[in-house]
Amino acid sequence: EPVEAHLTVAKEVAGPRIEPEIYGHFVEHLGTGVYGGLWVGPESEIPNTRGWRNDVIEALRRIEVPVIRWPGGCFADDYDWRDGIGDPAKRPVRLNRWWGRVPESNRVGTHEFMDLVELLDSEAYIAANMGSMSPMDTSRWLEYMTSDSDSTLAKERRRNGRERPWRVKYVGVGNESWGCGGNMRPEYQADLHNRYATYLHDTLRVASGDGQRDDHLVEVLMERSGAHMDAFTLHYYTIAGEWEDKGPATGFGLDRWAKGLESALGIEERIVAVSGIMDKYDPDKRIALYVDEWGTWHDPAPGSNPGFLQQQNTLRDALVAAVSFNAFHRHTERVKMANIAQMVNVLQAMALTDGPRMALTPTYHVFDMYKPFRGATPLKATLETPRWREGDIELPAVDASVARTADGRVVLALANLDPRRSARVRTNLSGAVQGRILTADAIDAHNTFARPDVLVPTPYSAGGEGEALTLELPAKSIVVVDLPR
Ligand code: AHR
């Protein structure tokens, strides 16, 4: 017998529209996240467009990437943009200090990254180096990229092959300044942020924010630097265990299933806490909250370089993505951007590659299923859901999100987190809905290069003309449906 849940959807909106940037991405020079995963080089036998592999690009185009944060992460605060411009053969090779101390060829630099942004019809979010370079380095980098003038830097860009300036909408002022971005005290970071932000023009200034549940840091940055930022960031990783014992990406038991989902649901509490502090200093909500790193962090794949953060991606990761999106949708008054860590081959990736082979992950499919939510307006909804237990963890079975699209359709996302029991969700809506479902028998179902279609969305429909709408959700499933107006 399925458990019963009730969803009551109101006509009133619950907040401002869901910005498409909530479905943003993060690409770091880390492991095979860039080299191999996205970039193979123009000379490669793997089909590519000016070096970017076609299979991955085509897949990413299908999920419509709104924004890409680059080049890090921790890498960003150790990166000199000058290393990545000019003749590729003359670019210096550096050690990637944070991620495996492997050589960084700088083959992918500003021109190549901006080409990726344009190939994907996306926006650039440049993470600038506040940890180990000067404000002048960042302002010159921006001038190089965005100036239409005859300045020496603009001319240098043209000589390097790019006539028109690029558009750089977002600039991150450092990354995790409390850790790999310089191990700063919040007070020191706030002063430094203000200094760096002074030299940033015509771009949205994003302050490096919380990643350690540090309310004091949020207070200090908001109080001292609020006037010099357009957005503040939150990093939140889902760990199905402890930092020292994250647990495997596959082959886990129900205890790790429950722990992972409990951790994922915790993102909302952190969003609420950070937003609460932001409200004190910015009651008009001028400053946005960008969750510019989020996703699962599991033990590295067996046999892989631990510094490469490679991991498989299962049905559990798909549910983490679904509940995270639902949480972002519930807080659109502040959350205007989110960037999953990371795009390819690193942490909770969209695609995994091995030489010429590629497999799309369950997380990719969740991004695809949630596409109708972009630009839609969240509606007020009340959900009564049964709960389920695993050991000492108790969690809700059903998690939901409802929004109205610009053309008047109602989009509904429902996730059943219970690994054992199906759920019957009765609603106050009526009519027939169509959409897709993502589910599998095994809690760690995943796609491999040999079997890339183990976990793909399949068609789903429920209800009927003039009938009360009830949706049946199998155990551990995600359903996204559309109710025509
Ligand atoms: O995404 C991996 C790393 O996690 C990033 O480089 C850093 O910002 C965070 O600690």
UniProtKB/TrEMBL annotation:
> Metal-binding: present as a keyword of the record?
no
Gene3D superfamilies annotated for this entry? Glycosidases, Golgi alpha-mannosidase II
Q: EC annotation?
A: 3.2.1.55
Which residues lie in coiled coils? Answer: none
Q: Which domain of life is it from?
A: Bacteria
Establish whether keyword Repressor is in the entry: no
Q: Where are the transmembrane segments?
A: none
| UniProt KW keywords | Carbohydrate metabolism, Glycosidase, Hydrolase, Signal
Q: Which residues form the Alpha-L-arabinofuranosidase C-terminal domain?
A: 292-477
Enzyme class, broadest EC rank: hydrolase
The reactions it catalyses are: Hydrolysis of terminal non-reducing alpha-L-arabinofuranoside residues in alpha-L-arabinosides
The family classification in the record reads: Belongs to the glycosyl hydrolase 51 family.
Share what the entry says about its subunit structure, partners included. Homohexamer; trimer of dimers.
**Protein name per its UniProtKB record:** non-reducing end alpha-L-arabinofuranosidase
In its UniProt entry, the species of origin is given as Marilutibacter chinensis
